Amino acid sequence: DPGSGTSSHPGEAPAAGLLGHNRAQLDWLDGILDRYPDLVIENCASGGMRTDHAMLSRLQLLSTSDQQDLLLYAPIAASAPTTVTPEQGAVWSYPQPEDSLDEVAFTMANALLGRIHLSGKLTELRPEERALVHEAVAVHKSLRADLPHAVPAWPLGLPAWDDPWIALALHTPAVTYLTVWRRPGADDTTVLRLPHLRGADVHADLLYPSTSQAHPTWQPDTAELTLSLPTAPSAVVLRLNERT
């Protein structure tokens, strides 16, 4: 933990002890990874204190938050690519037996454009809830090879903590993945702007959850996707492909 508590020698700057502490930590990590190059080490964000290039350049994944409210995790998951690469950014998904089906899908959707930390009382889920978890993991496996090559975009702008609609897009030269969250209190329709697809004939495939009643409509001239989600909270993951 790089927090306070270090001391400096006489004549040193007040931060010298903290700087030395951080450098010693990095040297220690380098030595471990030199000895065990196949070891996977998780970096905990620690409220953002360890979300820095020095740590992210060495460690394979970052736990983005220990937030336990699925609705509050959405803006964290959507904003994570501002700091950490999608293939490193791990999101905790922990469906609970008391969750509705929409809430199970919401908490799983939080992680699909990042790295899944799957937890929760999985053995106590009802069959239909467990099926949503299986489906989410299968969808993640189908798209995760694209994540290291994807560039993030925010079709609704960077999310604020209380935004009713939140969206994250990851696009490669061939495909765009889009997660959209509707939180309680939001209208049932939003308009997402995807300027990198302007003029393209785009088909929107529903990846997750397959039971969603989402209704997307694409306008190529304005590069806008109008999306309706009939329930709140709810979330969907879409794949946008250009028709050839």
Fill in the keyword field for this structure.
single chain; 244 residues; alpha/beta; 5-stranded antiparallel β-sheet
Kindly describe this structure.
This protein is of the alpha/beta class and 244 residues long. The protein folds into 2 domains: 23-148, Alpha-Beta Barrel (TIM Barrel), CATH 3.20.20.70; 150-242, Immunoglobulin-like. The protein has 5 helices and 12 strands. It has helices spanning 16-35, 53-56, 70-79, 101-109, 127-143; strands at 42-44, 61-63, 89-93, 115-118, 151-153, 165-171, 176-182, 189-193, 202-208, 215-219, 224-228, 234-242. The strands form 3 sheets. Strands 5-6-7-12-9 form a 5-stranded antiparallel sheet, with helices on one face. The protein has a 4-stranded parallel sheet with strand order 1-2-3-4. A 3-stranded antiparallel sheet has the order 8-11-10, with no helix packed on it. α4 (101-109) links the parallel β3 (89-93) and β4. α4 (101-109) runs parallel beside α5. It is globular, with a radius of gyration of 20 Å. The protein starts with 15 loop residues before the first helix and ends with a strand. 31% of the residues are buried.
Question: How are the secondary structure elements laid out?
Answer:
Elements: H1 16-35, E1 42-44, H2 53-56, E2 61-63, H3 70-79, E3 89-93, H4 101-109, E4 115-118, H5 127-143, E5 151-153, E6 165-171, E7 176-182, E8 189-193, E9 202-208, E10 215-219, E11 224-228, E12 234-242
Parallel strand pairs: 1-2, 2-3, 3-4
Antiparallel strand pairs: 5-6, 6-7, 7-12, 8-11, 9-12, 10-11
Helix pairs in contact: 4-5
